[in-house]
Recover the amino acids of this structure.
């Protein structure tokens, strides 16, 4: 190497994450792409992508997958990586839609086909490739909201079209459509309802802790202790307490308070939510610059005016970050509520575990993951919109 001159290395011009995704994607292509089983209970046989159907099906799909992964390798081309990720995801959908009927042809009335490890690995890899491309472009809040809406609309259109109805997980759904709708309402009620109640309790409590150091010193340790209790133990503790309330308080059972069911799960989630809500409210209000608070005091603002006009706007991003943590946490913890009759998607998860039916587990797990991911992205957008830099831009 001469002075003042850089000799290109072997990886010059390559995007390291894209190269890693390409290598991992090539390894995933060697895994079984789908499985076919005699019925919904027994373990299926793995089928490679090039055995799904004739060359007219797997040929274009495999070529598109390889091309999509290859587009992620060159450096400095985020739009190419984005296009490659979308091409690869489209190829995955093509292979599922065309491969499932081909595998079921002549396999018997009770045969089931499901995505296998290769499909799930490729789905994760291509999703990470898309996220990497988007991160380099740093889209604003509006662009991310539009992208989230577009993805939700595309996913809804695919499911509504019936293109995936031959998959085992969709057959599980078709036989439980009414139960799935009820579980969705229960899950949303557990996750979002518990957050709403925690905000109604924790936000005023956080303001009080911000104002009074003594109250903060006693409240936060208690809430921290509640946060350390394992979820199953917390749900178990709620059962005898609410069972006693249901039998001792007139009218309690009439409004649904009992030892098992929705009430103990809801109460446990509220208790889990209090620490992030109270803690981030205190941290957000404390984050207001002392100079700004003193200036507001010098202008003659009352404590309430300083709170709502100065401290709250400056601390809102931190407070919303706490709500994001709580919401994503509760969407996941609500699954455990299925163990005590709380309903939600956990009902299908634990039914599938009892029946060794993997696709019934997925019927509960997949919407939980999708709901948590969408909620996290939506809350990130709100945090960015609430930040002072965004507001002044």
């Amino acid at each position: 190497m001469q002075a003042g001159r850089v000799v290109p290395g072997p990886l010059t011009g390559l995007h390291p994450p894209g190269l890693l995704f390409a290598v991992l994607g090539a390894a995933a292509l060697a895994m079984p792409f789908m499985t076919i089983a005699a019925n919904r209970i027994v373990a299926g046989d793995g089928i490679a992508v090039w055995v799904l159907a004739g060359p007219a099906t797997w040929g274009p799909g495999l070529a598109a997958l390889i091309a999509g992964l290859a587009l992620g390798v060159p450096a400095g081309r985020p739009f190419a990586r984005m296009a490659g990720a979308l091409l690869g995801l489209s190829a995955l959908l093509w292979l599922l839609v065309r491969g499932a009927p081909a595998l079921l042809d002549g396999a018997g009335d009770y045969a089931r086909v499901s995505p296998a490890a290769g499909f799930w690995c490729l789905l994760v890899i291509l999703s990470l490739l898309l996220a990497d491309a988007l991160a380099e472009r740093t889209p604003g809040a509006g662009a991310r909201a539009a992208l989230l809406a577009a993805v939700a609309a595309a996913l809804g259109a695919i499911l509504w079209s019936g293109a995936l109805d031959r998959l085992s997980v969709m057959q599980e759904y078709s036989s439980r459509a009414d139960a799935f709708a009820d579980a969705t309402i229960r899950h949303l009620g557990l996750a979002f309802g518990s957050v709403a109640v925690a905000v109604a309790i924790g936000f005023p409590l956080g303001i009080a802790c911000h104002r009074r150091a003594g109250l903060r010193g006693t409240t936060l340790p208690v809430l921290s202790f509640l946060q350390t209790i394992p979820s199953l133990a917390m749900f178990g503790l709620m059962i005898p307490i609410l069972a006693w309330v249901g039998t001792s308080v007139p009218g309690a059972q009439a409004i649904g308070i009992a030892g098992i069911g929705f009430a103990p799960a809801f109460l446990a989630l509220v208790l889990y939510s209090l620490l992030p809500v109270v803690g981030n409210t205190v941290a957000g209000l404390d984050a207001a610059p002392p100079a700004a608070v003193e200036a507001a005091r010098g202008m003659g603002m009352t404590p309430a005016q300083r709170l709502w006009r100065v401290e709250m706007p400056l601390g809102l991003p931190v407070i919303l970050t706490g709500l994001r943590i709580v919401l994503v946490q509760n969407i996941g913890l609500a699954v455990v509520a299925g163990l005590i009759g709380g309903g939600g998607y956990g009902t299908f998860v634990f039914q599938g575990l009892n029946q060794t039916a993997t696709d019934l587990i997925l019927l509960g797990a997949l919407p939980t993951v999708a709901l948590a991911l969408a909620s996290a992205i939506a809350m990130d957008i709100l945090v960015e919109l609430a930040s002072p830099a965004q507001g002044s831009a």
The two ends are 46 Å apart (CA to CA).
